[in-house]
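Sample intake sheet
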Amino acid sequence: MFIQTESTPNPATLKFLPGQEVLGLGTADFPNPEAATSSPLARRLFQVAGVTGVFLGSDFVTVTKAEDVDWAHIKPEILGAIMEHFQSGAPVMEGEAEAGHASHDGPDSEIVGQIKELLDSRVRPAVAQDGGDITFHGFERGVVYLHMKGACAGCPSSTLTLKMGIENLLRHYIPEVTEVRPVAV
């Protein structure tokens, strides 16, 4: 098994591509070891000293490290853990992955549908390339609230991406959108 690695805009995060399906559909975000109870793969990765976050995508694994840890010291162990997991035949997840966007009912449901469509067609594929995900969390009085996951969470360029990229895109296509803000879940 050959696992490729790619850097992300977040220097604390690397994207690992095992050359096979990881989740297929959906994503799974594990910001700490306690959150990883439903994923044997994430639990295995958190056993590597210095790993502080794991994010699973369709065909990739994004790993975030502690600030005081050097990639050169933990990358081989992470590669070994991913390889061992896939060779073991154990499932990546026990249960379902996250569907993505939060549901939204009410008078703005048509606008929210347009927001989700733009996020799914234009934004999420681009951020998946960088090892992350951005999902809809809410819409209130013209403000769109988005949840940033994986490499996007804590990335130095995430504010710029959110404001200059996503906000401009949504405001261009949906006049009711006035601002985009990140939300921590």
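Comment: The longest strand covers residues 132-140. The chain has four helices and eight strands.
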